[in-house]
Amino acid sequence: MYNYEWDRLKTWLDQYGALDETIISPEQVTRLDLSGHSLKNLPESIGVLSKLIALNLSNNKLSSLPESLKNLTHLSNLDIRRNSFEVLPHSLAELELRSLNASGNKLGDISVLQKCPHIRVLDLSGNLLENIDTAFADENDLQTLNISSNYIKDVASAFENLSTLVRLNLNSNLLTELPASIARLESLEEFECSDNQLQKIDEAFFALDIEKLNLSSNAITTLHLHDLDSLEEMILDNNEFVSLSMDESFAPHLREFSCDGCALEEFLLPSSSALELLCYSSNAIKIVPNAIERYTNLKELDIDDNEIEELPDSLANLSYLNTLYVNGNPLSEASKKIIAIRNPEICDMNMKTGIKIVRASEEDLSQMAELLSVLFAIETDFSIDFEKQHRAIKQLHAYEGADLLVAKDENIVVGMITMQRLISSAEGGFIGQIEDLVVKEAYRKMGVGSRLINKMRSIAQEYDYKRIQLAADVDNANALQFYNRRGFHKTHLSIYHYIVS
Question: What's the predicted TM-score (pTM) here?
Answer without folding.
Answer: 0.76
